[in-house]
Amino acid sequence: MESRLPERDRPWVMRTYAGHSSASATNALFRRNLAKGQTGLSVAFDLPTQTGYDPDHELAAGEVGRVGVPVSHIGDARALFDGIPLAEANTSMTINATAMWLLALYVVAAEEQGAPTGALTGTTQNDIVKEYLSRGTYIFPPGPSLRLTTDTIAWTVANAPKWNPVNVCSYHLQEAGATPVQEVGFALATAVAILDSVRDSGQVPPERMGDVVQRVSFFVNAGVRFVEEMAKMRAFVRLWDTLTLERYGVRDPKQRRFRYGVQVNSLGLTEAQPENNVQRIVLEMLGVTLSRTARARAVQLPAWNEALGLPRPWDQQWSLRMQQVLAYESDLLEYPDLFDGSRVVEALVDSIVDGARIELDKILDLGGIVAAVETGYLKSALVASLAERRRRLEAGADVAVGVNRFTETEPSPLTASGAEAIEQVDPAVERSAAEAVVSWRAGREPSTVEVALAALRAAATGADNLMPATLDCVRAGVTTGEWAGVLREVFGEYRAPTGLSASSAMREDATLTGVRARVSETARELGTGRLRLLVGKPGLDGHSNGAEQIAVRARDAGFEVVYQGIRLTPGQIVAAAVEEDVDIVGLSVLSGSHLAAVPAVLDGLKAAGRADLPVVVGGIIPPVDAAKLREAGVARVFTPRDFALTSIMDELVTVVREANGLAAG
Predict the structure, then answer these.
(1) Which pairing describes strands 298-300 and 13-15: parallel, antiparallel, or unpaired?
(2) Active-site residue, from 73, 130, 172, 232
């Protein structure tokens, strides 16, 4: 048949995003996944590793090994990749602020295996911009962060030419509220900032910019509107080809090829009727595989139960099998692009291209992506877009099956086992990791470590590429926290804009009006000007979307909102609650550290003489954990099942009234 390809296409790289507990446990998981047919590794790191802390640091409490694997030094890197030939592996590492450090650990671990650096293939995400906007695992200000990215790219061009040193990540932008137009425009603006920085650094000769461009990859999100998502990817392909030709003069079409991997939308998965997530994942996968000219180079899928907690190995296997059925059982890979010449698809692509160009030009007019981050323009745009998305969901204009429509359900056999339906992280993991890093430090040659850190400090203070000094730190046995600590001293730390001040208010409706009246009446009865809500993000969890939407809706409902952003210690939250004299504290925890973080805040309030202050909690919290939190003194526990934000506001008023002995009203 003429319409078929002369030879069936090779499947994309199939990954499973994996990492938890310890390097040795994760290594065992990697080996099992590879044996099941996975063709690439995708490493998830825990939050202390992502934010540059060792397991024994105060801010790491409750977070070690929970959403990924802790990697503190070269010993951990050896254990993580033990028995996995790194000369042959294709490894993706989801790491940003500490990307240079993790790449250096990987390079040295490969050296010790005898693998030449020039043979290494894989990706470090290394996109710090989206951390300021959506994910929250930044450390340093935008300028120094961009320098770390630039130095990593320049070093790999010269030393690891098969490695993708940066993976521009629009994935979290969509989760933070980005429309397809914003996702494409903001991601391309990030790529422009990175490529301009490399070009202007003088570290790469102008004639080698094509080598830089061809190693820039993207990491995108695919939602359930899979026709629109497929058109978005075709728009990305077209815009990237034009941009790299016109702005950077890359003449070779192969170097201009848009290369991307994908994780389909985890935050679009639901706690309610979680079995529906299976078909959501399959449909989302189609959006990035159906169009041959815009097909993903690598795909990793979430598991059906990610809205409940950490997936088990069996859950991850199910997601891998979804990919394998599509790639090997269906006839998808036997045909040319199915949509070339489609007027419907081309019109949709054109609209996304035109809109994304407007967004890109707007950001460049502001002075580029760094300026757009620092002024708060991008964050405010995302908060406003997400608020509109939430409004449509609550109004029923957008349907989420099992959540705001078709909510009648039979008991699910998949979740009948309760807490056994998700992976449980042993609390002993954190204690073991903290003890291990203390032992590691004690076993090193102190003078070697001091010399390596001094050289890193000197390089950071000056203008030298930081990768050679970082590699020397790895070989000396420096830890993740020590490496990041030196750079914190030189570069300082950063607090990104919250995006709340310029976000649009919700359209008025009768329900919101009623809640606002209750807020006003309760404040009058208490003799205060306004009810005050503190929204707190304890620990290292940077998923701030939910906290920001709560803060925006609370403000619309008449609360005075105190929100200081992400990554606060329990002590800082308690101090803010006391100093601001708030009426209620709301804690948002999505990393699974709620059983450590929340009691620490409750104990702190008790010690400060404010045990009377009501505390509510929101996050991905299994029922058994919610019961424990309520027993500890938490007034209410909200989970993704509680999608109606105005109803949550109404409940917050009730909590305040109960705590102050006011009659129900």
Answers:
(1) parallel
(2) 172
Q: Which of 130, 379, 543, 594 is catalytic?
A: 543
> What amino acid occupies position 22?
S
Active site residue 541: yes
Position 227 scores a pLDDT of 94
Instruction: Judge whether 476 and 448 are in contact, CB under 8 Å.
Output: yes
Chain-centre distance for alpha carbon 327: 27
Report the interhelical angle of 645-659 vs 545-556 (nearest 10°).
70
Catalytic site residue 73? no
pLDDT averaged over every residue in the chain:
91
Q: What is the DSSP letter of 45?
A: B
Contacts of 654 by beta carbon, 8 Å cutoff, 6+ apart: 664
Which one of the listed residues 54, 56, 151, 541 is annotated catalytic?
A: 541
The tens digit of pLDDT for each residue in 59-107 reads: 888 889 888 999 999 999 999 999 999 999 999 999 999 999 999 999 9
Helices marked H in 114-160 — which ranges? 129-130, 142-159
- Residue type, position 432, single letter: S
Set 17, 53, 494, 563: catalytic member: 17
Helices and strands per DSSP (H, E), number in the chain:
25, 15
Q: From CA 401, how far away is CA 224, in angstroms rounded? A: 12
pLDDT of residue 41 exceeding 90, the answer is no
**Residue 11 to residue 663: CA distance in whole angstroms:** 64
Q: Are 122 and 92 in contact (CB under 8 A)?
A: yes
Q: What is the distance between the alpha carbons of residues 653 and 665, in angstroms, rounded to a whole number?
A: 9
Determine how many CB atoms are found less than 10 A away from the CB of residue 82.
15
Q: Which amino acid is at 397?
A: A
The tokens describing 281, both together, are: 């994942």
- pLDDT of 496 > 70? The answer is no
Counting beta carbons within 10 angstroms of the beta carbon of residue 597, is it exposed (0 to 12), middle (13 to 18) or buried (19 or more)? Answer: buried
Q: d(Cα 374, Cα 528) in Å, to the nearest integer?
A: 35
How many other β-carbons are positioned within 10 Å of the β-carbon of residue 282?
18
If you ran DSSP here, which 8-state letter would residue 412 be given? Answer: P
DSSP state of 532: E
Nearest partner of 321 among 89, 91, 18, 36, judged by Cα: 36
Q: Output the CA torsion sign for 390, 391, 397, 403.
A: positive
Q: Tokens standing for 634?
A: 């938490």
Q: For 128-132, 238-242, 649-653, which range has the lowest pLDDT when averaged over its residues?
A: 128-132
Distance CA 591, CA 571 (A): 19
Question: Nearest-CA neighbor of 21 among 59, 69, 55?
Answer: 69
N-to-C CA span, the chain: 73
**Listed residue (496, 457, 469) closest to 373, CA to CA:** 496
Banded model confidence at residue 640, pLDDT cuts 50, 70, 90 = confident
Could you confirm whether 537 is annotated as catalytic? yes
Catalytic residue among 132, 171, 494, 563: 171
Instruction: Please tell me the total number of residues recorded for the chain in this structure.
Output: 665
CA distance 9 to 12: 9
Cβ–Cβ < 8 Å for 59, 569: yes
Q: Model's pTM, two decimal places?
A: 0.84
The dihedral formed by the CA atoms of 198, 200, 204 and 209, expressed in degrees to the nearest 10: 70
Percent of the chain with pLDDT strictly greater than 90: 67
Render 425-474 in DSSP notation, one character per residue. --THHHHHHHHHHHHHHHTS-HHHHHHHHHHHHHHHHSSS-SHHHHHHHH
The predicted structure's pLDDT at residue 497:
66
Active-site entry in 46, 537, 563, 583: 537
Residue 110: exposed, middle, or buried by beta-carbon count in 10 A (0-12, 13-18, 19+)? buried
Q: Label the pairing between strands 17-18 and 41-44.
A: parallel
